[in-house]
Amino acid sequence: MERVVIEEVEKTFPNKEKDGSFTVFKDISLTVNPGEFVSLLGPSGCGKSTLLNIVAGLDQSSAGEVKVGDKKIKGPGSDRGVVFQEAALMPWLNVLENVTFALRKKMKKEEAKKHAEKYLKLVHLSKFMHSYPHELSGGMKQRVSIARALSMDPAVLLMDEPFGALDEQTRMMLHREVQFIWQETQKTILFVTHNIRESILLSDRIVLMGTRPGGIRKIFTVDLPRPRKPSSPEFIKLEEEIMSILAGEIEKVMKEEMGDDFNSKKASLLYGTDRNMGNHI
Amino acid sequence: MGAVEQLYIGLFDTGILLVALTESLQRIVIGFSLAVIIGGILGILLGVSKIADETLGSLVIALQSVPSIVWLPIALIVFQGGAGAIYFVVILGGTWAMTLNIRMGIKNVQPILIRAARTMGYNHTELIWRVMLPASIPSALTGARLAWAFGWRALMAAELIGRGGLGRTLMDARDFFNMDLVVAIMIIISIIGLIVEYFFFSKIERKVLSRWGLAKAS
Predict the structure, then answer these.
(1) Which domains are seen in chain A, by residue range?
(2) Total count of domains within chain B
(3) Which Gene3D superfamilies does the UniProt record give (chain B) (predicted)?
């Protein structure tokens, strides 16, 4: 359990064709308290995954710094476990070996095996320890990936849209599992998602990010008792509040992508296609 | 029927086919192994180092398009007609296929696997050994298969011109107008191809592909 401090971080991509450069976001400051579950929510292109990758050390920030505990981040390291959207399991290793793969830098073979078994039990995969990744379903692969990240006993768990590629039923099951794991291990979790409901369901705080200019729009504190019910009035109220801000951001993104073609009234066309039917009889 | 008779005589009576077969097999096994090792090392180098790839890469492609038997005249002079010349041609025949396939395998490793391993604290050299190489095993297998095929063809061609082995015996048989023996040798050559394919490559391939999840295990 460590505190994550993001201080005035900026990410700019140099543009080779034109002289200008493209700033994804700048002046992002955020503190994630020990044991806290924080979601980064925003439309595509707002840089939420980039921010997570900077915390993971896989991307370099253009300015500012990120600290985990007292340590400044310079590159990737096993103090930050990362779960990607794809499970990213080594296809030639079985489930158990995939988890010990993360541990072999730290401990002896036998010790790593025992450790890995413990974490596979935590994600309820003891039965599949000797299966290969291609024999598992998407949800199971993602659980292995979570076990692998947790087994390193990282100070922070970083999750980059971990359930984005899964079907609804599997996702619901994994939401429950993640809450259980979070309560069990008391890890600090930084969670990237574009799903409002998912973020309300899981997090203590929701950081809503926007584009043009990229940055934090608003931080919501979710003060609902767990386990949370998506049908409760408070849940729906918060969902609508977030949606109203997010809708504006999404419209900006669409305008950016489609240029002049974009017209927010376009959706209404769907209900008006019969306008010529029988008009001139 | 004459060919079958010649097969029997050559293998179990006079033993000339047995001697020739042993010699050819020894050459292909040693030549193939060296081709896999040299080609493998070169392929890893090209796959991992951008500088090596940009300088040596096109040279390898140029060399690969030269049928290795073309090297025999030079090799015969350099090795003074010794057995080294034939080994040289066989190794050259297989090396490039191996090199290019390993290089491809390493270049095509899913970036997400490398990113994941980096978050677990693996450094660059460890990434090569623990992620890139295992991930490129399926392409290495394709490379080895091609190296065998090219090496075997190169060996036969080299032996027709050079000395010893099945190829030379085939030419001798033709000189004596013993067409039955010629056919017998051709049968041996194709049977070796069959054995290597079915009892070696197919088996390994099935194991590797099912474990890597690239094909359904049957």
Answers:
(1) 34-57+71-79+156-281 (3.40.50.300), 87-153 (no CATH)
(2) 1
(3) MetI-like
β-sheet bridge partners, residue A9 = A28
Residues of B in contact with A159 (CB under 8 A): none
B102 CA: distance to closest CA in chain A (Å): 17
Name the one residue in this structure whose structure tokens are 């038997």: B69
Q: Do A57 and B120 touch (CB under 8 A)?
A: no
Q: The complex's ipTM?
A: 0.83
Q: What are the distances in angstroms from CA A156 to CA A99, A143, B1, B20? A: 17, 17, 77, 67
Contact flag B116-A133 (C-beta cutoff 8 Å): no
**Among the listed residues A82, A86, A85, the one whose alpha carbon sits nearest the alpha carbon of residue A57:** A82
Indicate whether B94 belongs to any domain: yes
Contacts for A218 with CB less than 8 Å, ≥ 6 apart: A208, A245
For residue B214, report the phi and psi dihedrals to the nearest 5 degrees.
-90, -15
Residues of the domain holding B203? 20-211
Return the CATH number at B30: 1.10.3720.10
